[in-house]
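Figure S7 source data.
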Amino acid sequence: MSINCTNREALDDFLRTNLKESRYRHSQGVEEMAVRLARLHGADEEKAAFAGRYHDIAKNFDTETMDSYVRKYGLPEKLIGNNALAHSKVGAEILEHEFGVSDREILDAVRYHTTACKDMTILEELIFVADVVEDNRTYSDLEYYQNLAYTDLDKACLEILEYTIGSLTTRGMVIDIDTLEARDWVLNKIKEIENGK
Ligand code: DGI
Ligand code: FE
Ligand code: FE
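Tokens for the predicted 2'-deoxyguanosine-5'-diphosphate complex:
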């Protein structure tokens, strides 16, 4: 199977042109980690590679460019001026409308890679996790989170969400509803699995 995309070469040019060197390396790291997690947890490796590689395609746009894409694609007003939350939504729109990517699961994995959301597929969940645990990340607990991601994707997802919510709360920032719903959803999923044992 090969992923639907009108011009893969142009897409790669777009990625290289629009990402800073370190962000490009991060994208390669997420691609590799996503494939590793797909293999371990039984998801489509090709889709994981694709979503991982292009997940941050809109990350380095300046705010003016980002806002113009938010308007062009009729995305929610709350994304205006908020590159941290907008880049994942804009990235998914660019992949779909400017490069003909039609795979819903890939598009949603990119769309929700920053906040996560409830009812995620394994692909969405592993892209969310791979983004945080790829090899180029430098925080001190990296190895702990990587091992958790290899052994228990749900628990890794939960710990990352708890950390994000805690850190945003400390910084007095608005926590997106998708982030909160994702936390409740994955917590419940873990409980159900444990009760089923
Ligand atoms: O693009 P990356 O740096 O690889 O990682 P990312 O897409 O997860 O983006 C991280 C940023 O997103 C970080 O600055 C925190 C922010 N973020 C994540 N969830 C939320 C959030 N910001 C707000 N305001 N609300 C959220 O729920
Ligand atoms: Fe991102
Ligand atoms: Fe990223």
